[in-house]
Amino acid sequence: MLSTIIMKNKITFLICLQAIVLQLSFAGTGTKFVFGDNSLKPRIVVLTDIAPADIEPDDMESMIRLLVHADLYEIEALIVSGGWNSSGRAYPNSWKDSLSTVINVYEKDLPNLMKRSEQTSFLSLKEESEKQRIGYWPSADYLRSRAMFGSLELGVEKLGEDNHSDGSDFIIRLVDEDDNRPLWILAWGGANTLAQALWKVKKERSETEVEVFVSKLRIYTITDQDVPYGDAKNFAFSSHQWMRQEFGKNLHFIWDESAWLNQNGIGAKNWNEYATHIQKHGNLGSIYPKNKWGVEGDTPSFLHVLPNGLHDPNESRQTGWGGYFEWGLSRDGITSCYTNANSEAKRISDKYEHYFYPATFANFAARMDWAKEGKGNRNPVVIVNKKKGRSIINISSRAGKTIKLDASKSYDPDNDRLSFRWWIMPESGTYTGDLEIQNVDSNCAAIVVPADATDKTFHVICEVTDDGEHKLKAYRRIVVSI
Question: Tell me: domain 393-481, CATH 2.60.40.10, correct?
Answer without folding.
Answer: yes
